[in-house]
Amino acid sequence: MNKPLRRIAIFCGVLIFALLARTNYLQYVQADELNTRKENRRVRIERYAHERGNIIVDGGKSITGSKETEDSDFKYKRVWKDGPMWAPVTGYSSQAFGATQLESIEDGILTGNDDQLFFNRTMSMFTGDEEQGGNIVTTLNSAAQTAAFKGLGNKKGAVAALDPQTGAILALASTPSYDPSTFAGNEEADTKAWQALLKDKDKPMINRALRETYPPGSTFKVVTAAAALENGLYTDIDADTDSPLPWRLPQSSKDLDNEGPIPCKNASLREALRYSCNTVFGKISDDLGNQKMIDEADKFGFNKEIFTPVRSNASVYPEDNRPQNAMAGIGQASNRATPLQMAMVASAVANDGKLMQPYMVAQRQTPDLDVIYNHEKEEFSRPLSAENAQKLQEMMETVVKTGTGTTAQIPGVTVGGKTGTAQHGLNNAEKPYAWFISYAKTDSGSPVAVAVVVEDSHADREAISGGGLAAPIAKAVMKAVIDSKK
Amino acid sequence: MSVVTNTTTIGAINAPSRRNTELMMMVFAIAISVFAYANVGLAMNGKLPSGMFGYGAGLILLGGVAHLVVRKFAPYADPLLLPLATLLNGLGLVLIWRLDQSPRLIRRAEIGYGAFSPDAPKQLLYSAIGVALFVAVLMVLKDHRILQRYTYISMAAALVLLVLPIFFPSVNGAKIWISLGPFSIQPGEFAKILIAIFFSGYLMVKRDALALASRRFMGLYLPRGRDLGPIITIWALSILILVFETDLGTSLLFFGLFVIMLYVATERTSWIVFGLLMSAAGAVGVASFERHVQSRVTAWKDPFACYTTDLSGACEQISNAIMSFGSGGTLGSGWGQGHSDLIGFAANADFILSTVGEELGLAGMMAVLLIYGLIVERGIRTALAARDPFGKLLAAGLSGAFAIQVFVVAGGVMGLIPLSGMTMPFLAYGGSSVLANWALIAILIRISDTARRPAPAPAPSTDAEMTQVVRP
Question: Main localisation, per the record (chain B) (predicted)?
Fold first, then answer.
């Protein structure tokens, strides 16, 4: 009986060997993959095991915090100060529902698990101190953010404000908003709050400033004007243009209308922007052709996702046929832009044609406040020559001085802007979007460019206009930035 | 091979007894367990556990008694079996104690049963009873061949044990428990020993008939019905009972035991082929009507699939077990510092290996698996060394059953094969398991003692030499 016994011994050896092979596979080969699976609660337990680092505005004021909880799994819970106001900046970090935006992108620093913090972790292991997360210092200006959020009030809409000289994002508001603190934990109340937010018809968790694209309406005429100047179609902004009235859309039997009886026939560029002439800018777009319009829009940042580092959806200036291209030139048809994108347009004009890469993380810090990353300003593109930019500035300043944007005037400050009322819906049946883009200028260049969109308000359809609804908000934001610099 | 000397009736004269080797290894096994206990206390509460002295003293007492009994009643026994079993039992106690401290499991028990009661003290009590059983077996069973006399009684007892749970309510989906007042036992664990005794006794008598008086059928040698009939009936009966009790791990164990012992007894490879075919047919057959099995096969194929559908819970246990192995990595998180308690239900029973995997890492897992491997191979070595066919069959059956049990549990927990609830011998929480496995080790030690004991001086008659039966 010894021969079969030896074979049984080998068989048992094979069984044990199979187990050894399997454990090697699981614990060595697959370990990393298993450790980062989203189903793995350890990831979240680890994330909330220590006090999370903070997100900082105004160069030192923290808008987040950590609270110790009773929960057996998660020791700390994230809390936010002025949650609804800052939510479009911070995103959320919930024990039960994951994390988004800065809370998610900068999770490594905030939890202290990032490789850049390896030295700190090792030190706290030796000293026995509790591990802590690092901080994220943002470029946000709380005065501007408050002005934007208060300005939007109970209207649906968004505001994006930039520093044209650096690309720093100064304000990023979106309404209606939500308070991430209501579902940061792991309790039943958190689940209820979360589900209520998901069901809300107004979609409060959408970041309208970065993720929602709207037809930009007349504010896009600034880009069309830039294309006309850059391509040499017109060089003198006060010379008559070749613009008949009525102007018929190409390949069509339909005339392009203006809003009311305004003097648009052969109007100069300055006057056309001042009165917001559809005929003039529709014709410019058609004269230049689709490709040149796309090229200029691309230089302003269209057709590309932008990472601030939070991702902003791509704004679209599409390839299109002639009549559609003409419509896109006045910000209608399938032309769509995010508020951030339109703020970039205004900031490029304000910064003499130089568009800076928008960003909101200025610094990353270790728990001991040592700086491990410092943002260096970076040029995005040059959509305009300095000369043409100054021409466009004059045009936009005329709009605010004597045109449709007078409501944005700030005493003692030069302000340039452009209003927009974008129609949308089937046969334009829905309430139009009110837009306003603008910049302010002081002796030392422009400190702020801002884009405001009001998606929906309780105002009557006739009362909705960029100048009436959006411009006062832009004015408040610009004023807040200028005042905080004093 | 050199072991040939042990297969004749003349053993090696004055083989060393190796009792001091065993003592050294016992000291080592207990020291490791106590060190582990201290380690858990330091990691979880920042101080040495208060029960450390009692625990250490208990282990030393149990191990010491076991060692002294072996020294006295089985002086030539294999020196490795007892220390290996002690080490596993000691580590198992630490693991169970560590899981007792988990706030997650405590809260779970409070919600589910209204109160939490720690399992480690109960397991320590079971271990003490287990060692007492070990001592009793060695003291009462002077020679393993006595068990031959109880061939059919073993069979009857095994069947009764297997049938009984049908009359008791099912616990967590399987009817494998007999509850008597505060105690409950899992008869399957004891039945595996009894069935091995029955198979050994029966096959020893019938092995020649089974091997030689067979007909060739489609290239396979099939024995006559009257030889194979009884054994196949008993075997089929026990499998059927287990299938109805949905104790699939144990039915797999019985099947493997049957094939292994038949193969060893008849030396016919065709039994292996036959066994594999039958197990394939059986597996497909059972899987086609048992929803319990189907859900486990689904969870095995893709342990993470149910997270994306609505069926989470169907695979949550197995996926959590796999993730705990993954998070252990090469060196583990250290005693008391993992999150294997996320598995929840059965974390300290069927799934105790996940805690080993997470907290001791790949290194600890390999060590534990090799300890099991060593126990199995020492058992088969005992079978090789045994001089009587009954002892050979019994030792082979018990070690084979042990190996299959380890493979089925560990393989199930690690996602190598579908899960089929059984306990990790010695490591897992459970009274029946600890008791039965100590009895199993006692029987193996008894057989190895008989096998390695120096033969009495050969008879002076020269005829004795010529009447020997010499087997290849």
Answer: membrane
